[in-house]
Write a structure and sequence with these properties.
Layout: H1 2-43, H2 49-76, H3 80-97, H4 103-120, H5 123-132, H6 138-167, H7 169-190, H8 203-220, H9 222-238, H10 244-250, H11 257-282, H12 288-309, H13 313-342, H14 348-376, H15 379-399
Helix pairs in contact: 1-6, 1-7, 2-4, 2-8, 2-14, 3-4, 3-7, 6-7, 6-11, 6-13, 8-14, 9-13, 9-14, 9-15, 10-13, 11-13, 12-13, 12-15, 13-14, 14-15
Length: 413
């Protein structure tokens, strides 16, 4: 008996280690690509502001449409192979980006990129929850996952920023895509599926049944509904982040804004990693998810108010660190952990796909609304509006009766 327990403990550590290593590597190449491609779209492809918005909107729409079908497939057939498929779509879109400059072709790359994230969304959390098979540890592992994602992101920004400077933007983009494909091979080789039983027969009817059960669970569980609503509001407000660089430049950012904003982004990753380390140590307590989420919203409101009213770029940068470094990273991580606690194994990916859809819907509507508001009034007004939205979300979570009792026993299954 002792030997079995020891073997389970060793396997649990191996599973968690492989998951965190994968998280770090994926973040390196993801963030490196995002940094370099954002410059490539402007400098090499010469896209207009309208075309840039269309690229981002197209990706969000693809995510919105693909999240639920891919989530149901993951709950029906496999958690591992959707992750591998997602990596292949991501890699294809990334490599293609570095080889073309025509807008229709770049739009295709973002559709592939969106499909890649659609296949990956929720499947990763479902896989580690099943294979770790430790309800008492999964929240801490997911918090650690978010922290390693930030560390990998900072590494990727430095590494691919230097590669783009030395070899060119297109070369760095293609290299990031090829590396993302290699990480997919890592998943295929290292991620086992010992605790998942796929549907062997009548997969279509099984998929429809899983979808209906996922909808039923999400509709009847008031805590899941609360997190979905809060996520939609916060993610809508988060689209104001596109205005941060312009606000800082208007406040008198130093002469080389690209260098300084990159440095600020890396510092935000570091601040977020520290915040998530604190969350990781405290997330298991009764009511902790509700309190941490509400506190993160308060920090986000404070940061946006500071940025909107800052007299100079230095104090404005403090506001960016509070919002981007702490608030958005913590709320995203806590929402995943919270929903995961309330979800049964048979529909885990499907319910997480609903969370991803809430993010996409918030980003689509919030992005357009805040862009129109900033154009009609000012950036400061848009920032304060986003602060009001986050304050509403935080108040809604803080005043709710959610997370004040033990999680249902069925959720551990």
């Amino acid at each position: 008996m002792l030997r079995v327990a020891r073997n389970q403990s060793v396997r649990g550590r191996d599973v968690a280690t492989a998951f965190l290593r994968w998280t770090y590597l994926r973040a390196v190449f993801h963030r490196g690509y995002v940094l370099v491609s954002s410059l490539y779209f402007v400098i090499d492809a010469h896209l207009s502001a309208y075309q840039l918005v269309v690229l981002g909107t197209a990706m969000s729409l693809v995510l919105l449409l693909s999240d639920v079908p891919t989530g149901v497939w993951s709950d029906t057939i496999s958690r591992k192979w959707p992750l591998v498929t997602g990596h292949l779509f991501l890699a294809a879109g990334m490599v293609m980006t570095g080889l073309v400059t025509a807008f229709p072709l770049l739009l295709t790359t973002q559709i592939l990129w969106g499909l890649g994230w659609g296949f990956s969304s929720g499947a990763d959390v479902a896989w580690i929850t099943d294979e770790l098979d430790r309800p008492d540890r999964i929240a801490r592992v997911l918090a650690a996952r978010a922290r390693w994602d930030l560390v990998g992101g900072a590494t990727g920004m430095v590494a691919f920023g230097l590669l783009a400077w030395a070899a060119g933007l297109a070369t760095a983009i293609v290299a990031s895509g090829l590396a993302m494909a290699m990480v997919g091979l890592f998943v295929a080789a290292r991620f086992s599926e010992d605790n998942f039983t796929p549907a062997r027969e009548r997969r279509l009817s099984a998929s429809l049944s899983i979808f209906r059960r996922g909808v039923k669970l999400a509709r009847r569980d008031h805590e899941i509904l609360l997190v979905l609503a809060a996520t939609m509001i916060v993610n809508g407000a988060s689209m104001v982040g596109w205005l941060f660089p312009k606000q800082l430049v208007d406040l008198g950012f130093p002469n080389d804004p690209v260098l300084w904003y990159t440095a600020l982004g890396i510092l935000a990753f570091a601040v977020g990693a520290v915040a998530l380390r604190i969350v990781q140590a405290r997330i298991d307590g009764l009511g902790a998810a509700r309190r941490i989420y509400a506190l993160a919203c308060f920090i986000g409101v404070l940061g946006l108010v500071v940025l909107a009213s800052a007299p100079d770029a230095l104090s404005g940068s403090v506001g960016v660190l509070l919002v981007s470094g702490i608030a958005f990273n913590v709320t995203r991580t806590v929402s995943v952990i919270w929903v995961n606690r309330r979800t049964t194994s048979d529909v885990r990916t499907t319910v997480h796909s609903f969370l991803s859809q809430a993010e996409s819907v918030g980003e689509i509507f919030g992005g357009f609304a805040l862009a129109i508001l900033a154009q009609a009034t000012s950036i400061s007004v848009a920032l304060m509006t986003a602060a009001a939205l986050i304050a509403c979300s935080g108040a809604m979570v803080a005043r709710s009766r959610a997370d004040r009792a033990a999680t249902p026993a069925a959720v551990g299954g």
